[in-house]
Amino acid sequence: MNHEIRPPARYAVIFTSQRTATGHAEYAAMAERMEHLARLMPGFVDVESVRGNDGLGITISYWTDLAAIKAWRDEAEHREAQMRGRSEWYRWYHLRICEIASEVKFSPES
Amino acid sequence: MNHEIRPPARYAVIFTSQRTATGHAEYAAMAERMEHLARLMPGFVDVESVRGNDGLGITISYWTDLAAIKAWRDEAEHREAQMRGRSEWYRWYHLRICEIASEVKFSPES
């Protein structure tokens, strides 16, 4: 996370996935490219991503509005990545689009 | 995840956190105990949790309604864990309560 001024996130897209055992280098390159592209999309606010050693991953992207999420879903390179995800990279995934109702931040240094 | 029949989740609590470098064994025991307790709460649906090697973690719990989330927040042992979290275990955290608007599942085996 960086600390530049950004618009508040009103929506979160929770992407929980289980990787297959194949294509590590290609997958890593795709993931980096997708994060780069997502950051360029209007309405993008932030992304948080963790994958454990067992291949279970959670990526959450934050957006200002639903139209921005739809535009990102339909972005051409992203659509290509989604197709390869289903055919090669993910054993399963679960995607949830959520509206943020409330939030609490804790940071003793700030 | 298991596949017993459960009520649909309407809310997700996204808990993103950065661990401090201390208390690994105690923290692991607490995390296991909290997951056990959460599963006993009325309105609990599921939990997904991943922590990377850099100490960044995302835990998402799923609930049927906001009252269930509030009851879990106020549960006595959980409150104690929250206090120790702020004083010892987390460098920072960000908690977001979200309403699930839509979802998509992918699983070629099912």
TrEMBL record, chains A, B:
PANTHER family: ABM DOMAIN-CONTAINING PROTEIN, BLL5343 PROTEIN. GO terms for molecular function: monooxygenase activity. The lineage of its organism: Bacteria, Pseudomonadati, Planctomycetota, Planctomycetia, Pirellulales. This is Antibiotic biosynthesis monooxygenase. InterPro entries: ABM_dom, Dimeric_a/b-barrel, Jasmonate_Hydroxylase-like. Keywords: Monooxygenase, Oxidoreductase. Residues 28-82 form the ABM domain. It comes from Pirellula staleyi (strain ATCC 27377 / DSM 6068 / ICPB 4128) (Pirella staleyi).
